[in-house]
Write a structure and sequence with these properties.
121 residues, mainly beta, Jelly Rolls, 1 helix, 7 strands, 46% strand, RmlC_Cupin_sf, PKS_Associated_Protein, Cupin domain-containing protein
């Protein structure tokens, strides 16, 4: 419903799985997705879109082919379209993703970690 407040903590309490983004709202053609991450993800890229990671709690590591960055609570990073990357978290990390509707979490990679898309909570 338009103009509803989204409480991230309340929404995060509704699911427990890692690497399975859940949509909490939309703006134009963009979705806001909460995801819990832990351990290693897969190397992948999104050839058609940038991807924004906003860390709500914890510490997110993102490997690129030439370097690694650390994104901490209260920080964000935009991974440019087509950039191969691999997220990782040593301990559970809570992230808000901002990306166009329909973006698959594993991008161009075929993986067992590919999550169902457009799951709302």
């Amino acid at each position: 419903m338009a103009g509803e407040v989204v409480n991230f903590a309340d929404k995060l309490a509704l699911f427990s799985g890692h690497w399975s983004p859940r949509v909490v709202d939309e703006m134009n053609d963009y979705q806001f997705k909460l995801v819990k991450i832990a351990g290693d993800f897969v190397w992948h890229a999104h050839p058609d879109t940038d991807e924004t990671f906003i860390v709500l709690a914890g510490e997110l590591h993102i490997e690129f082919r030439d370097r690694q960055i650390v994104v901490r609570t209260g920080e964000m990073v935009v991974v440019p379209r087509g950039t191969e990357h691999r997220p990782h978290a040593d301990a559970e990390c809570h992230v808000l993703l901002v990306e166009p509707r329909g973006v698959v979490n594993t991008g161009d990679a075929d993986s067992a970690l590919t999550a169902a898309n457009d799951i709302w909570i």
